[in-house]
Amino acid sequence: MDYTENALRRVNAYKGIIVDVTTDMVKLSNDAVTLREVVCHPGGVCVAALDEDDAVYIVRQFRYPFREHLWELPAGKLEPGEDPFPAAQRELSEETGLEAAEWTPLGTLYTSPGFSTERLYLYLATGLTRGTAHPDPNEFLDVDRVPLTEMVRRVESGEISDAKTVAGILRAARIRGV
Prior knowledge:
Layout: E1 6-15, E2 20-27, E3 33-40, E4 44-49, E5 55-63, E6 68-72, E7 75-77, H1 84-96, E8 98-110, E9 119-130, E10 142-147, H2 148-157, H3 163-176
Parallel strand pairs: 4-9
Antiparallel strand pairs: 1-2, 2-3, 4-7, 5-6, 5-10, 8-9
């Protein structure tokens, strides 16, 4: 059965700094008409950077919507139309000061496909060399180096709750046989 929904009309409800929100009138496969709210986001990148000892670099930052400090893999927002790979290289360098000789795509994630267009591109970065971190002016974070096995334990215990970090750690662990 084809359950494709066809857009009839789009109203831009909100234009923001990071996201736009639309309200779309759609026709369902049974010919009924309903509304869909869509959060339009340009997407992002997330990097699992592993060193020669299979330790992963993570960043801790305050996440305002949850009013919590979270440990996450280095990540960042894409500019509209930006290629994800150079963005991943940029974000790893900005947040950790690391450069990587080898990059392996770990796939993509739809963060919340019921209402958001955000797509995250995951990467594994290896062959690391150290430099100096240079976060964005309004970005405040700490960097830590944690064994991949310990990060898997933190994911499995629920201590790590950021979805992109959970996915990135588990995909990197699978590749590394952890």
